[in-house]
Design goal:
The complex is a heterodimer of chains A (218) and B (475). Chain A is built from five helices and twelve strands. By secondary structure, chain A is α/β, with parallel strands linked by helices. Chain A folds into two domains: 31 residues, no CATH class; 168 residues, NagB/RpiA/CoA transferase-like (Rossmann fold), CATH 3.40.50.10420. Helix content of chain B is 52%, strand content 11%. The chains are: A alpha/beta (218), B alpha/beta (475).
Chain lengths: 218, 475
């Protein structure tokens, strides 16, 4: 008895006009997979930081560009205050976040997010200048639920993590992992929907607000 | 979903008289069409990317045997399982079997057109699983027991009032008895109700915008983030995808992603673009324990080998329907199945039956706007003409139509007789209609003149007028 797999593959092979793939074709296609052609990518002349920030703001994220590690906590505190949010936050269990001094007034738990959490803070792997996207990947340090469950998502990123194109963002996500991670997220703005009369509402299922802190020096 | 495409004419008439639908369709033109135009104009590389997108898809389709095998290998390496389904029934059986094997009770779904195509929800409910759609538009339609009317914005035909009524009726059992009338309150209420489903579901089913052969990854794009919660929180993640979703590598994916958001909603990129590969790793604290992919054929391998291969480039952006004057007049439900608009008029006959959907390829003015905006340059008008040719060859069109076409063909193949005939006809019509200036009724064309008047011809044929003009120029 032939399996559905064999039947489908046989029909596909017939449709593309060959019973089997000859070794030369196999080698050529394998080579293309290992060294994919460098495709055309969008180019621009804008200042990289300005472009990244304006792209994110254009999709309703808030962005603070800060100069020192101490400013990171300040930016978070003023974000929480302005939005009238409790000072209880969930910090990703990520040692990169130890670089920032967390003030005593902020109650923080270092763990994965739960459904009832109000605010989560994570570090990103990269920021994509082309689109203003944040790249996050699943790991012990950065569980994917943190990016989607809480109502507010704060992401911390350093200037040297900015890369030009989406392709570069993907490579950054893979660089620190031994293999392809379970999940790589490109996040560009807060969660939104236009399913009620084609009008945008924020906070459909994921975060209602996305706050990005870009650390330039220090 | 049972195709209702044979009822196209009656459904179109109903749609034309539906005020809620007509107002939604007017907004569609203002919204998606304008957003796409601005977004495409803002990217100088857009046209070159369209060529590249077409070439990437063509390359993949020409080598689909290789890429499917490689994709399967990579998914298996990552700890996932690939299942193959020739038919919608096979796909549904595989999905329900997986759900049964893990003792699932609640199954949640992220919006996917292949899920609609194979009828996953009905199959799951029949098998006794509680099934919840998590995309807000799809959730609204699940409550209303209606199919989607647009492939990107499924509930585009629903008014806020209708949604308020639906929520009040269905959420009362949860203690949410107040009728919400503000958009934000409706979205908030759905968030609250669906959050419960996310945290309690056993299985999450998503579609795939693309599958990557080089890594075995699955890509989904959403704005709501529902797809991400669907594939992160439940202990099993099932991906349902058609065999034509496979592309070689991440570099190819980025080209197509740049086209997809811009063409669909006028976004450079959607809020969430997510790559998932296999089940959670040993060190991960969240993510599914099991990862399954169901690769569905459902007629695609046949299309790969015939005139319809180009259609398999489709990345499901919906630009063709957004720009289609016919879709813009009647909306998606009139088409009677899962895929509406130009892409639906090509696909539905192939999947639901040539005879079932014979009206769809004819509901097209061949104005060509769909082809002008298609991000991967699918020659949709040409493919619709192929359907028309097939209908004639397989005798799926009416005897009267065939007779009329035969009469016309007889004359068209004999230019001298044709010109003589038209000259007489124009002269007679010009003389008969001179006084009124229009014909309000015509024998054999009652359907045409029912909705409009035919202006009286000037008395001579175009060819005669042309010859006269040329003569004048030569002198």
């Amino acid at each position: 008895m032939t399996s559905a797999r064999d039947e489908i593959l046989a029909r596909v092979a017939e449709a593309v006009g060959r019973e089997e793939i000859d070794s030369e074709t196999e080698a050529r296609l394998t080579e293309r997979l290992h060294h994919p052609p460098v495709q055309l990518r969008p180019q621009w002349d804008d200042d990289p930081v300005e472009r990244f920030v304006s792209k994110l703001r254009a999709v309703a994220a808030t962005v603070d560009v800060v100069n020192t590690a101490a400013d990171v906590a300040k930016s978070i505190a003023s974000f929480l205050r302005e939005k009238d949010l409790p000072s209880t936050v969930t910090l990703a269990p990520d040692d990169r976040l130890n670089a920032y001094p967390w003030p005593d007034v902020m109650e923080n738990s270092r763990r994965n997010a739960r459904a009832e959490d109000i605010t989560a803070i994570t570090a990103a792997e990269a920021g994509v200048i082309e689109t203003g996207s944040l790249v996050l990947r699943s790991s012990l340090k950065s569980p994917t639920s943190m990016n989607f469950l809480p109502e507010n998502h704060i992401v911390i990123l350093r200037r040297e993590q900015l890369v030009n194109n989406l392709e570069d963002g993907w490579r950054c996500a893979l660089e620190t992992a031994n293999n392809v991670p379970r999940t790589v997220n490109f996040i560009t703005g807060p969660s939104k929907t236009a399913d009620v009369e084609q009008t945008i509402e924020y906070g459909a299922h994921g975060p209602r607000r996305l706050h990005v802190i870009l650390l330039i020096e220090g | 979903m049972k195709p209702m495409s044979h009822d196209f004419k009656a459904r179109s008439e109903k749609a034309l008289e539906d005020p809620v639908l007509q107002s939604a369709l007017k907004n569609l033109g203002l919204g998606f069409v304008e957003a796409r135009r601005q977004c495409a104009n803002a990217l100088p590389e857009f046209e070159a990317l369209r060529d590249l997108g077409r070439d990437i898809c063509d390359h993949t389709l020409a080598n689909l045997d290789f890429y499917l095998r490689r994709y399967e290998e990579k998914v298996t390496e990552a700890g996932g399982q690939v299942h193959w389904a020739s038919t919608p029934d096979d796909a549904c059986r595989i999905v329900t079997d997986i759900c049964r094997n893990v003792d699932a009770k609640k199954v949640i779904r992220g919006k996917s057109m292949i899920g609609e195509e194979v009828g996953i929800n009905d199959a799951l409910e029949e098998a006794g699983f509680e099934t919840v759609e998590t995309d807000l538009g799809e959730y609204i339609l699940q409550l209303a027991k209606e199919p989607p009317s647009h492939i990107v914005a499924p509930a585009i035909h629903k008014s806020k009032d209708e949604i308020s009524d639906l929520f009040q009726k269905h959420h009362a059992v949860r203690g949410l008895t107040e009728r919400q009338t503000e958009r934000s309150a409706l979205v908030q209420e759905a968030r609250q109700v669906l959050r419960e489903a996310f945290v309690s579901a056993d299985v999450g089913i998503t579609g795939a915008n693309f599958l990557l052969a080089d890594t075995g990854s699955n890509i989904i794009v959403t704005n709501e983030g529902n797809g991400d919660l669907t594939c992160t929180l439940p202990k099993v993640h099932i991906v349902t995808a058609a065999i034509d979703k496979v592309i070689p590598s991440v570099d190819d994916a980025m080209v197509l992603l740049r086209l997809l958001g811009r063409s669909a909603t006028g976004q450079e990129i959607t809020a969430y673009t997510t790559f998932t590969t296999g089940p959670k790793r040993a060190e991960d604290v969240d993510g599914p324990e099991e990862y399954h992919v169901i690769l569905v054929d459902n007629g695609r391998s046949t299309m790969l080998g015939n005139e319809f291969r180009d259609m398999l480039r489709c990345i499901r952006c919906g630009a063709c329907m957004n720009h289609c004057p016919v879709y813009g007049a009647i909306g998606g439900h009139a088409y009677g199945w899962v895929y509406p608009g130009p892409m639906g008029s090509v696909l539905t006959p192939m999947m639901a039956g040539l005879d079932e959907a014979k009206d769809l390829p004819n509901a097209c003015t061949l104005n060509g706007r769909c082809q002008e905006v298609c991000p991967v340059r699918i020659p949709l008008p040409k493919l619709l003409r192929v359907h028309r040719t097939w209908q004639h060859e397989f005798k799926h069109n009416s005897g009267m139509f065939r007779f009329g076409l035969g009469v016309w063909a007889f004359f068209a193949a004999r230019p001298a007789v044709y010109q003589f005939g038209t000259r007489i006809a124009m002269a007679v019509m010009g003389a008969l209609g001179r006084r009124k200036g229009v014909f309000t009724r015509m024998p054999l064309a009652g359907g045409w003149t029912q909705g409009r008047d035919l202006p009286t011809p000037q008395g001579e044929t175009f060819q005669a007028a042309w010859r006269q003009k040329r003569k004048g120029q030569e002198q």
